[in-house]
């Protein structure tokens, strides 16, 4: 175990991280069960150095009540950067806890591993609330597929608020490619003033970008 | 003139609500999350808060809870959210919200609720 720990410490030092690992994985997992918030927070921080602990961290996140520990868990998860946990993390979007949902959205925006398969699942999730939150994650994903995903939503999704979230984002990033879908979209929700407003704004911005 | 603070992380929603509010003769201001809304509420008085739930940094529940518990403002707060679950409504009222309505809003509906909360005839 010591050699593994040393190896990890060297790797982390190479990543310009001055944090030293003092404890082994089982000890840290035990510490996450502590009643002491400080003990849990410290353990969560050290678990960042163990990508294989990602699933444990997500489990802890789901039951953690202290916001400062949750914050450290999410930071550690994003530093783990392992694709295995992304799906688990996305599951937290179903939480009843609005703070946790928002914290997870922010964490998923910061993830650098491949999230496309998870996003494609979330965008067609049976729960419209999950689909709305998934659209919120797209906001800062900077992925070439984002505009097409949003077009698919405004063309196919039947839930007005999922479509509203998509058109909100299209107001920021729509190109000429979105124009035909937006024009049809206005007629699909013709009795919703907000949808008309947002879609017309997106179309106006596409036109303005074409002129400038 | 009555001042209304719109608290929502979606720029398009803020603009839509601002247009409705200003067209009815109210003064509108905006905040992009609960933290910015608290800062604004501390620096100037508002007659009404129009609050989304899901926002980064501090969500709608947290904002209203702080508003009430720190005695920053007792002006009515209307939640305007996509969250339609009963548990979300309960949480909002527990936090100190006065009304909970589901997006998307229609202009006349929104103005009717604003009028009710401000104790005025709808514009």
From TrEMBL, chain B:
Keyword set includes Ligase: no
Pfam family, one: Response_reg
Modified residues (4-aspartylphosphate): 52
UniProtKB keywords: Phosphoprotein
Phosphoprotein keyword on record: yes
Residues in the signal sequence: none
One GO process term, biological-process aspect: phosphorelay signal transduction system
Protein name (record): Response regulator
Species of the source: Methylotuvimicrobium buryatense (Methylomicrobium buryatense)
Biological classification of the source: Bacteria, Pseudomonadati, Pseudomonadota, Gammaproteobacteria, Methylococcales
């Amino acid at each position: 175990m010591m050699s593994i720990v040393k190896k990890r410490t060297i790797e982390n030092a190479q990543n310009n991280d001055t944090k030293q690992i003092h404890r082994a994985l089982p000890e840290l997992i035990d510490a996450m069960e502590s009643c002491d918030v400080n003990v849990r927070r410290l353990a969560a921080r050290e678990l960042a150095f163990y990508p294989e602990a990602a699933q444990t961290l997500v489990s802890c996140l789901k039951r953690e009540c202290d916001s400062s520990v949750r914050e450290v868990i999410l930071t550690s998860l994003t530093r783990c950067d392992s694709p295995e946990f992304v799906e688990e993390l996305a599951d937290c979007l179903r939480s009843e806890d609005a703070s946790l949902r928002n914290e997870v959205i922010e964490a998923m925006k910061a993830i650098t591993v491949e999230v496309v398969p998870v996003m494609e699942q979330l965008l067609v999730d049976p729960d419209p609330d999950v689909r709305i939150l998934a659209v919120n994650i797209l906001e800062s994903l900077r992925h070439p597929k984002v505009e097409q995903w949003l077009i698919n939503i405004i063309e196919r999704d039947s839930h007005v608020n999922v479509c509203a979230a998509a058109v909100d984002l299209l107001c920021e990033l729509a190109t000429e490619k979105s124009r035909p879908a937006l024009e049809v979209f206005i007629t699909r929700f013709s009795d919703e003033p907000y949808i008309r407003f947002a879609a017309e704004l997106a179309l106006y911005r596409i036109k303005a970008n074409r002129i400038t | 003139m009555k001042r209304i603070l719109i608290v929502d992380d979606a720029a398009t929603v803020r603009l839509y609500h601002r247009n409705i509010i200003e067209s009815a003769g109210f003064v509108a201001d905006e905040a992009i999350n609960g933290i910015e809304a608290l800062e604004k509420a501390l620096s100037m008085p508002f007659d009404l808060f129009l609050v989304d739930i899901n926002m980064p940094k501090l969500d709608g529940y947290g904002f209203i809870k702080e508003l009430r518990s720190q005695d920053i403002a007792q002006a009515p707060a209307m939640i305007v959210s996509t969250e339609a679950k009963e548990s979300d409504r309960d949480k909002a009222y527990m936090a100190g919200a006065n009304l909970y309505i589901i997006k998307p809003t229609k202009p006349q509906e929104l103005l009717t609720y604003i009028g009710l909360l401000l104790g005025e005839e709808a514009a």
